[in-house]
Amino acid sequence: MNIFAAMKPDAVYGSVYDIPLDKLREEGKKCLLLDFDNTLGPDHATKPDDYAYKFIDKVREAGFICCLVSNAKSGRSAGIAEALGIPCVTYAHKPRPDGIFRALKLMDTKAEEAVMIGDQVFTDVIAGRLAPVYTIMVEKYSRKEIWYVVLKRPFEKLVRLIGRF
Ligand SMILES: [Mg+2]
Predict the structure, then answer these.
(1) Ligand 1 centre and the CA of 27: distance in Å?
(2) Domain segments of the chain: what residues?
(3) Mean pLDDT, to the nearest integer, of 96-103?
(4) Is the N or C terminus of the chain more exposed, i.e. has fewer CB atoms within 10 Å?
């Protein structure tokens, strides 16, 4: 596989709210594996806000099960997942796919029934493609980001330019 193909998501949307959930259900997907920081809320938030709560409601209404798959320390991501009422895999080690494997086992889901959703190429997208599961990239929730994510964004921009996504 070409290196840029490995970093290209199956689909890109402006936000999680633009994801066609009904279409994914029709295609046999049943489980959403969700990044949190800058996907479902502000980067490094300690608790979810309405944006995340409403999306999880929408996901449930569409008939999905879902699980947070976060690289964050266990305390923060577990707290967020608990508030949202969904399971969580912490220390997911994205871009390694092992967090996704743990989530699939936890959710009793086959890879072909799962969708990874996140805002970063170098963590979420690569992990999703390596698993492999259907992988959706969303544009970041807000401009504010922790410094080490800011450092990665120019390289991500270059990859997106070359990969045309
Ligand atoms: Mg993120």
Answers:
(1) 25
(2) 3-163
(3) 97
(4) N
